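F.,

This is the one I mentioned.
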């Protein structure tokens, strides 16, 4: 098997989320769409009636039997067996169920018959015993030992950093700071010659993660609720309410990385609490201080070991919790903070990048010094190969976007519906021409679709806006949504268009905290920065009133002017202009104007004939 054809899958099995990516030869890594609204899926398991369901299915079933549900099998890896439902389950069976699901999803998505190697990543500090559990879990998942490789998360992240065109040069050190849901892992790496990295120090805390922040916020919610109503706090502790509250709190926390305030719904009540970023920051300050301290300690340990340079530190932040702005600014006191790629998936992508070394390495051991990947540095040409700008194909004149079912950042499969269009000949579905992450999506209901207009890009998750313009174009697929005989009447052109910035039908808002009815500090569908707006690339806006003014004038003049023959003539003329302007699209207003003026004309013609006949 040569380097050019080897098919690899990397699975980053995390405390709360599992992400995966695969790669064929030296092509761009492809992220496996595991999540419902993002690339990762929950690592959760639900064990009921002798079977184990995983991911979103497990999350949905947890209310049925909370004691059959475990949201984080990884954090219970030391327990050997855990009790779920009415029996004990070996932990490797539960982790194996998650890995099996991911492996099978990746095979389906890639269309490949098998992967030549499957790489599982793990925290640097994991003992051989834990890695042994991971290996046995892989076996249970049907991943044979000869294909299995394991790799440290920090090295995977470091290679991703290099793959994206950055490097650690001169005296610099890289500190990979991975703040996930369950743990905070810190590793200090230096370049080992030109060909590898060496870990010179590590640290962190296995009991510090995003879930601790969630727990702190839940405490705050209970305190606030108790002040509002002493009964309320007790009601929020009921099992179903507690589960829902945990979800609302986590969503609010994630929203606060982008917004100034978030609303937390109190389940089972009509009440909500507003949490500002400032309050949130004062709540999490001790955790942030602790994370910075862990980072300093790891660097100090590396310095004390006396190996390698002691120059400037690059703090490469990975893991979902590192998205918190306050944390990033606190870490800037330690070194230059770098955030490259989506922090929740860089490990899954980076685990694919080590080349020959990883393939000859024994599954049992991961050398700290790994070979430099043979991948060429990322260039526009490499991006080009995997990404496309998407444009409307030839569409009938007057075709209007009626619904948008996708959003920027979403992972799509080739052919997956992105939007529906109402055309004079019926409803059409627009599908993605290639698979990947959607970028800069510019589709809004009420806008006329113009053939050839670019409305987004599909490609790797970290495709940068400045690269979009250089991509090849690909026309979106277009299919009839319904057979013409059942086609519903086209969207009337007089229907008020959706305001720019309004969420599209079927559009999933990024955070529950921004759902309608909640405080919305930011537009839920913001314009995409750097992406060409409507104009040569986007659609053409329907006149903002949305009302066919000629049709309306034709109706009014036709009615009021009927007593004068001229009124009917002018009304008819205005109606005809209105019909022309609507490019063949008829709506109730136009039909009414037409009807009134036809009746007026018939009445005047009959009157003329009667005058002539009667002399
Ligand atoms: N935008 C955000 N702001 C703040 N926290 C976030 C954000 N996005 C995700 N998180 C948090 O990050 C955590 C998940 O991150 P990640 O997927 O990296 O963890 P993990 O890999 O499952 O955990 P670990 O690495 O500890 O095993 C969750 O606690 C989640 O709430
Ligand atoms: Mg992780």
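My design for it:
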């Amino acid at each position: 098997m040569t380097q050019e054809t080897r098919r690899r899958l990397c699975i980053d099995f995390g405390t709360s989320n599992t992400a995966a990516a695969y790669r064929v030869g030296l092509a761009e890594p492809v992220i496996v769409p595991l999540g419902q609204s993002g690339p990762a899926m929950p690592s959760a398991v639900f064990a009921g009636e002798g079977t184990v369901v995983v991911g979103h299915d497990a999350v949905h079933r947890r209310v049925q039997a909370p004691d059959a549900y475990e949201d984080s099998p990884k954090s219970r890896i030391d327990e050997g067996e855990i009790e779920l439902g009415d029996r004990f389950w070996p932990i490797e069976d539960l982790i194996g169920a998650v890995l099996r699901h991911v492996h099978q999803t990746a095979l389906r998505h890639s269309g490949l018959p098998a992967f030549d190697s499957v790489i599982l990543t793990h925290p640097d500090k994991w003992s051989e015993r834990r890695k042994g559990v991971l290996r046995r879990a892989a076996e249970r998942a049907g991943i044979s030992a000869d294909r299995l490789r394991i790799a440290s998360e920090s090295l995977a992240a470091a290679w991703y950093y290099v793959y994206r065109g950055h490097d650690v040069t001169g005296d610099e050190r890289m500190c990979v700071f991975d703040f996930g849901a369950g743990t905070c892992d810190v590793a200090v790496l230096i370049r080992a010659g030109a060909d590898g990295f060496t870990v010179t120090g590590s640290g962190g805390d296995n009991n510090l993660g995003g879930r601790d922040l969630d727990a702190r916020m839940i405490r705050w919610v209970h305190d606030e609720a108790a002040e509002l109503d002493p009964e309320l706090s007790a009601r929020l502790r009921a099992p179903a309410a507690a589960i829902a509250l945990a979800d609302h709190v986590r969503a609010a926390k994630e929203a606060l990385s982008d917004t100034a305030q978030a609303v937390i719904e109190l389940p089972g009540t009509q009440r909500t609490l507003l949490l500002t970023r400032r309050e949130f920051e004062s709540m999490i300050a001790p955790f942030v201080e602790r994370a910075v301290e862990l980072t300093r300690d790891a660097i100090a340990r590396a310095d004390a070991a006396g190996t390698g340079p002691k120059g400037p530190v690059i703090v490469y932040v990975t893991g979902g919790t590192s998205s918190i702005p306050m944390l990033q600014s606190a870490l800037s006191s330690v070194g230059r903070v770098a955030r490259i790629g989506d922090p929740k998936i860089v490990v899954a992508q980076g685990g694919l990048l080590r080349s020959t070394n990883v393939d000859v390495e024994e599954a049992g051991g991961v050398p700290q010094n790994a070979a430099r990947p043979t991948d060429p540095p990322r260039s526009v040409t490499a991006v080009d190969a995997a990404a496309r700008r998407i444009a409307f194909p030839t569409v009938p004149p007057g075709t209007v976007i009626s619904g948008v079912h996708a959003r920027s950042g979403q992972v799509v499969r080739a052919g997956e519906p992105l939007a529906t269009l109402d055309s004079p000949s019926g409803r059409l579905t627009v599908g993605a021409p290639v698979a990947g992450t959607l970028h800069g999506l510019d589709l809004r209901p009420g806008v006329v679709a113009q053939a050839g207009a670019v409305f987004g890009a599909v490609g790797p998750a970290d495709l940068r806006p400045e690269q979009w313009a250089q991509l090849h174009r690909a026309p979106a697929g277009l299919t009839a949504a319904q057979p013409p005989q059942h086609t519903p009447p086209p969207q009337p052109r007089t229907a008020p268009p959706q305001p720019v910035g309004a969420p599209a039908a079927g559009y999933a808002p990024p955070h529950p905290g921004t759902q309608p009815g909640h405080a919305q500090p930011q537009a839920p569908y913001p314009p995409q920065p750097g992406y060409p707006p409507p104009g040569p690339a986007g659609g053409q806006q329907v006149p903002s009133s949305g009302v066919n003014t000629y049709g309306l004038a034709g109706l009014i003049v036709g009615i009021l002017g009927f007593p004068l023959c001229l009124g009917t003539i002018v009304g008819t003329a205005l109606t005809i202009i209105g019909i022309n302007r609507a490019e063949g699209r008829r709506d109730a207003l136009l039909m009414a104007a037409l009807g009134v003026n036809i009746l007026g004309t018939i009445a005047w013609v009959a009157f003329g004939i009667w005058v002539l006949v009667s002399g």
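Residues 277-305 form the longest helix (29 residues).

Talk soon.
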